[in-house]
Amino acid sequence: MDHENERFGYLWQILNQRQKATVVLETIIFSLVMFLSLFGNLLVCSAVYRNPRLRQPSNYYIIFLALSDILQALFTMPLSVGMLATSNWRYGIPTCYFMVISMLSLAPASIFTMTLMALDRYYKIVNPIKYQNIFTKKFIIVTGALAWIAPILNSILTVFAFGFGVSPHPGLAICKIELKKFYFPILIIFQNSPFFVIMFCYWKIYKVVKMHNADVSWQNLNAEEVNISKTLFASVFSFVLLWVPANTILLPSYLMSGSFNSPRVISLIGTLLVFTSSCLNPFIYSFMNRSFRSEFKKCLIPRKPQSVGTDSN
Question: What are phi and psi of 178, to 5 degrees?
Answer without folding.
Answer: -95, 115
